[in-house]
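Researcher: I'd like a structural prediction for the single chain below. Treat it as a standalone chain; there are no partners to consider.
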Amino acid sequence: MKVARYKIGQQYMTRGKHPVRCTVTDIYSTYNAQGELVYIRYVAAHEFLGQTLTEYDIPEATIARGEERVAS
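Model: Treating it as a single chain, here is the predicted structure.
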């Protein structure tokens, strides 16, 4: 059975030339007709020029790669 690995409030850093600290704000779960959990995606937000930008389809692997960078 799948479960959400990260909780709301988890922070991670994006990759790339200008990394940004993002925070998980919601968790989307998709169920099939039998009631089995088949898909988990995360919603994350970060600040950019004083505005909050929200991304709605963050895979678990993106957070896993970025959470290590927050600690260091």
